[in-house]
Amino acid sequence: MTIIILSSCQSEKSKHITIGISKGISSESYLQYTKWLKSLDSTLEIVNFYGLSLDSTEKLLEKCDGLVLSGGPDVHPNFYGKPEYDSLCEIDNYRDTLEFALIKSALNKKMPILGVCRGFQILNIALGGSLYADIPTQLSQSVIHRCENKDSCKHKINFINFDDNFSFMKGFLNNTIVNSNHHQGVCILARDLQPIAITNDGLIEAFSWKNQTDKSFMIALQWHPERLSRINPYLSDSLGVRFLNASRNFYKTK
After folding, report:
1. How far apart are CA 235 and CA 232, in angstroms?
2. Distances in Å between the alpha carbon of 117 and those of 161, 213, 221?
3. Is the dihedral angle over the CA atoms 161, 164, 166, 170 positive or is it negative?
4. Cα(44)–Cα(16) distance, integer angstroms
5. What are phi and psi of 98, to 5 degrees?
6. Is residue 2 over pLDDT 70?
7. In terms of Cα–Cα distance, which of 40, 19, 65 is closest to 249?
8. What is the H or E stretch that residue 159 is in?
9. Which residues are catalytic?
10. Which of 120-124, 165-169, 247-251 has the lowest average pLDDT?
11. CB 76 within 8 A of CB 91
């Protein structure tokens, strides 16, 4: 069982918001989420859920003001009705169970959610959508979505819809550069969601609610904002700030 809580030096804990990360430990890639968020607000408290029992997870989530579903291995295709795709996937069964429980609880609480890469994919599945299990074998490769060197892989996206979370991008509708490090993607988008951005091959790169009334604040991204600041700091930081602002608003209602 592992819990990481990173606190600021301010004396009044009540001034801090707490962000939970589904997996934020074990490698530099996972630690990057904490570094990115704390670069936007050094007073944050960060909680890692990975390794906890489901009972402990539920108790700890009560203390959180926002949830980040981080990147990582594939969601088991059983969850979107395609068990025959098992051989195409790298599976972490414990993480699937953990994150589906986190999503259900966070949505019930109307807690802000940021889904990144795998987090984007599992949100779509949890809400009734499905995935391409392996883009190279199931789609054309007119856009490269994963490279041997993940830090050098990037492509263009086009914004096609806007809600309040993405309104700041209206001046950058086409050919916005993002990083890319995934072999799976959204096939059927859950019916309560709308695509926000797509690649030139039509693959969905961001989604949000069709109707946000009485729902959690949610931003879901196929790319990695925590690693985007090198090539697109405006997009990276703007998305992070919106998520943290929503988490502060949620904190005020508790």
Report:
1. 6
2. 19, 25, 6
3. positive
4. 6
5. -60, -50
6. no
7. 65
8. strand 154-159
9. 117, 224, 226
10. 165-169
11. yes
Rounded Cα–Cα distance for residues 105 and 83 (Å): 26
Q: Name the token pair of 244.
A: 């943290």
Determine the Cα–Cα distance for residues 113 and 220; give it in Å rounded to an integer.
8
Asked whether 33 and 90 are in contact (CB, 8 A), the reply is no
Q: In Å, how far are 62, 67, 165 from 55, measured between CA atoms?
A: 11, 17, 32
Q: How many CA atoms lie within 13 A of 10 on its CB side?
A: 12
d(C-alpha 25, C-alpha 48), whole Å? 7
Domains for the chain: give ranges and CATH numbers: 16-253 (3.40.50.880)
Are 22 and 119 in contact, with CB atoms under 8 Å apart? yes
pLDDT band at 148 (very low <50, low <70, confident <90, very high): low
CA 165 to chain centre: 14
Q: Using one digit for the tens of pLDDT, what is the confidence trace for 121-136?
A: 999 999 999 999 988 8
In sequence order, what DSSP letters do the residues of 126-153 get, joined into one string?
Answer: HTT--EES-HHHHS--SS----SSGGG-
Give residue 154's identity as a one-letter amino acid code: K
Distances (CA, A) of 2 to 31, 59, 212: 14, 14, 34
More confidently predicted of 174 and 179: 179
138 closest CA partner among 91, 194, 195, 203: 203
Q: Yes or no: say if 49 and 102 are a contact pair by the CB < 8 Å rule.
A: yes
CA–CA separation, 121 vs 203, rounded Å? Answer: 12
